[in-house]
Every structure is written in C-alpha cells, then in structure tokens.
Amino acid sequence: MQPFDNYAVAPEPAGLRTAYASSLNESRVGEVVQVCGWVNRIREHGEHLVFVDVRDFTGVVQCVVPRSENLHPEWVVQITGTVAERPDGTDNAQLASGRIELRDPTVRVLAEAEPIPFSLDERVELDEATRLRYRYIDLRRTRMQRNLRLRSIVNSAIRHSMEEQGFVEIETPLLWTPTPEGAREFLVPSRTQPQNFYVLPQSPQIAKQLLMVAGFDRYYQIARCLRDEDLRADRQFEFTQLDLEASFVTQSDILNFISHAIRAVVQAVRPETTIAIDTITWRDAMNRYGSDKPDRRFGAQLHDVTSIFSETQVKALNAPSVQAMIAPSPLSRARLDELVDRAKGLGAKGLLWLRVEEIDGQLSLNSPVSKFLADREQQQLVAALGAKANDTILMVADEWERAVTILGQIRLGLGRPLADQNILDFFWVIDFPLFEGLDEFGTPISAHHPFTMPNEDDFARLDTDPLSVRSQSYDLVLNGWELGSGSIRIHTSAIQSKIFEVLGIDEDTARSRFGFLLDAFKYGAPPHGGFAFGIDRLSALLAGEENIRELIAFPKTQSGSDLMTGAPKQVDADILAQLGLQPTARTKD
Ligand code: ASP
C-alpha cells in the first residue's frame, strides 16, 4: 500500500491496470505499464502527437499519444505505455509523476463521455445546486476526493482505537421507536400493521443502554442518526456519530476512551500536530467565554466586574451581573454602533463601550458614559481587565447567564476571524447543569436526556433548588464547535423515578415511551455511561471545510432535497393504500 497526497492510499494494482498514476516515477523508467482512468486534459504536442493526462484517484500521469487517437476529456481509458523520462526542462514538480511520461502507447477506450456540465478545475467557483445535481462528477474533483478519503481515515482510526480498547461493534436497528434526544422524528409507516409507525432513531441511546444490561460491557458503533430538524450548514437530517457506551466505569474513564480515539484520529490525519485535551467546568466556560462550547483559539476573556459597579451612578450598569472584556482588535465607531445593535438583537438592554486612552502617562476612559463613572470605578475597571492604552472595553449588564452569553457572542463574532486555523483546540466541558431551565409551568427541562445521572453531591437539592443541580454529563469541544456529548446514566429505578417526577413525566407517559428500558433495568442494570461525537463535523474541521456537506458523499440541500435523485418524491396512491395511508390535499405551510 502506497500513501499519496490527498489521503489516497493505493493498493497493489490489479485487474486492468499494473500501475497507478502517482506511483510512476524515474525509478520505473523502461517498464511497460498499464494505467486506467479518465482523460483529464489533452494538450497539443507538435504535428502528430498530443499530451493526454490520465487521471486516477492518486493523481495524473502524462501520456504521449498519436493525434490520430480519438480521445476527449472524461473518456475512460486504459493506456499501456513505456515509462520514459521527460525531456530536460519539461518536468512538473507539482506532480508525483512529474518527471516521467508514458510513450508508445496502446490506447483502449473503455467508455466514452458526454461533455461534463462543469469544469473539475479547483479554481472555478461552482454553484452548489449544480454540484449536487451531478454529485458523481463533483466528487471527481481533487478536493472532494481528499475530503471523503480523509473521512475514511477518520473512521478507520476510530475503529482501531475502539478495538484496541476492547470495544465491541454492534449494529442497532434503524426501524425503531422514539428515543429521548428531543428532536422531531422521522416516521416510517408499517405495511404489515397499518396505522402503526416505526421511528428512525435520533441516536442508538436506548439500544446501547440495553446492550449494557445485556452484559456487553464496552459497545461502540459508527452510527447513523436521524433527526427531522431544520437544516443548516452544520446540520443534515442524517448524520454519523461515534456512539459508545461502557459499564462499570466513571466519567473519567469515558473521557479517556474518547480522548484515545480523538488522538488516534489526529495522529492519522495530522501526524505533525500534538493535541492536549484538557477539561473545563461548564461554569468556568460560561464565566470566561460566555459559551458552553467556547472558541479558545483567541483571548478576550470575560471578567466579572459586578462588584466594581455596586454603587454606580450609571443606570445601565445597575444589574445583578456586569461582564466586561477587552475587544480582541481595534474597533471603529461605526463597528461599535453595529455591535451595540447586535447586542440588543441578542436580547441585551445595551452594550457599553469605553476606549482606554493614555494622557500624560495616565490611563483614562473615553466613552459616552465615562463622565458618569466615578474615577474609582474607571481605575478599578482598567486594573481588573489589565487594559492598556488604545484597548476598547465592552460591557454587558444583566442577570448572569444572559450577560455572559451575550458578551460571549460578541466575543465570538470579533475573535473567530482572527483565530489561528492550524490550531486544534480539543477540550472537555464537564459539570453541566442537569436542567437547562424551567418551562412555562415551572417544571425543569432536561439539559441532556432524562437518563442522565445527577452529580451525587447535589441529590439533596433536586426538589429545593433543581437548577443548581449538576449532572454527570460532559461535552467534547473543538475550536468552538460542540463535537459531542455524553453522560453517566441513571441505572436504578429509584433515581430514575425521582428524575421523572422532577421532570413532570408521569408513570404512564414514562411507561409508554421507555417502558421496555425501565423493564430491562429491573433485571440487573450495571452502572454505565457513554458518549457520542459527530464524525461529519470532526472530519470537516480536520479538512478545513466550513460546511459538513463537503464531507458527505450525497448530502441534502438546506430544504431537505436530494437534487440528484429528486427525493423526497410523491408516491402512487396504491402504495399509500397498502400502507393504510390516504393522500390529503397538500397544504402549504
Ligand atoms: N445519545 C446522545 C446523543 O446522541 C449521546 C450520549 O449521551 O451518548 O447526543
């Protein structure tokens, strides 16, 4: 096996070929070889000859072909020729095969091709709809070949890591029943039991917990998950995750299993990069970055300056929490006005900005509000932030979570464009709150899913102060993206009933939704926990792509269509009838 650029790994040649394009170089001069592939480009070469570049997945090789051969771009050919050094001065250092060419060829056309609808040249900007309509041609492009091969290497590294750690790969059903991830689900009508539906799984969550009850101890799966949610650049109806569950383990064991897999992936695709996967608590992440998935590739941390303004004259700073940060880059007045609007759009009452100026060796603040700020407040603010001349200080005052979140969003907008693209900043966020808030009736809402184990130290506050209860759940973050999440699960009926009670899920509802899981737990459930991270997003970040569609062979558009196959499509009335369904007038929403 020979590795090439673009993550291509060529096997021993077989079948119609005896060599791959990029494996041909000076060491093979004189050999007669057979290459197969697509005609990439044809160039004039004197009166009787043309240069034909033949492309396979490893790259291209130049063949010197008589003009009399009738060849066109994208025709599929087999060329048998002799490897010869290129004449002096005609080398192409960009190509692995750039010092040789194939001469005296026998050309066999394996398939002709109509002119393709767009150029494969990477420099040409293409409209995504055309790319998706002809995805099989789009995927011939070097960038897409590289992306999908990278993804295959990611999968392979994950599998190796899982096997090394004693995990067993087990497939779980796609035709399933509701799972507790909280997204809208895809339904599949049953033909044999009309009016009944399967649910496509949002994740293998329940199945993997049942496998723990079944004694598999360490399970994993590279699993397809399906969620009927509005699509965005980072979301598809179907996505792939490494799904893992293990028994008789603690949170730190799960973090270690996943860290091992992440290290294996980085080693496989970026061997020159070393990564440290550190841990930060949810509260720290919120306090310092105003986000539970912070981008730490740039500074501009948040500072709690509430106490400085406890007696302030400035009404706007009269709030339970005052958060401040130094902007990561200089900001024009127009930009500051935009930021004020943005903060308001995010729900802030306002955004205060103050410019730090140096006058006669003294730092002072210049801002529409600075004349209302006491000298003491100004000096303490500058000292608390470590501000220097020409810095701009931004502040939001509100209740704590809103203030940090809004300033965190402002921080992200300003800092992300400045972040070093070569850094891979992986880290764990731990100690999430068990509940993300209260619903309109005052009932807590699960932050993860209802099988998440509370932190044992906080059990006592489940009834009295549920929002302060931490969970044994954790997220993995890379460069400000949440790659995945997991938790230690509840495995005893007593705790599970308590959580259902707090969540306002009555026994009948719990039984109808998860009865089979609750039953299984009566027959000896080991303590267990797990995790899942998204392979689409991880691969996209490693490939330097913004959009996960670039890492998916056949993705859907934003509106959920497959432009190549035309799905989703209407079906005939008799097929609906077989499923016990009746067409209704189509409504537009
Ligand atoms: N099932 C969860 C998810 O898909 C992950 C986990 O808790 O293992 O997000």
What does this structure look like?
- With 589 residues, this protein is α+β, with helices and mostly antiparallel strands.
- Among the domains are: 21-111, Beta Barrel (OB fold (Dihydrolipoamide Acetyltransferase, E2P)), CATH 2.40.50; 142-270 and 532-574, BirA Bifunctional Protein, domain 2, CATH 3.30.930.10; 298-418, Gyrase A, domain 2, CATH 3.30.1360.
- Helices cover 25% and strands 25% of the residues.
- The protein contains 13 helices and 24 strands.
- It has helices at 128-133, 135-138, 142-164, 205-213, 251-269, 282-289, 333-345, 375-385, 400-415, 493-503, 507-520, 535-543, 573-578; strands at residues 2-3, 9-10, 32-45, 49-56, 59-66, 76-85, 100-111, 168-169, 187-189, 197-199, 218-226, 238-247, 278-281, 303-304, 321-326, 352-359, 362-366, 392-398, 426-430, 435-438, 444-446, 473-478, 481-488, 528-534.
- Helix 3 runs antiparallel to helix 5 (251-269) and helix 6 crosses helix 9.
- The radius of gyration is 30 Å and the shape is globular.
- It starts with a strand and ends in an 11-residue tail after the last helix.
- The model has no long low-confidence stretch (mean pLDDT 94).
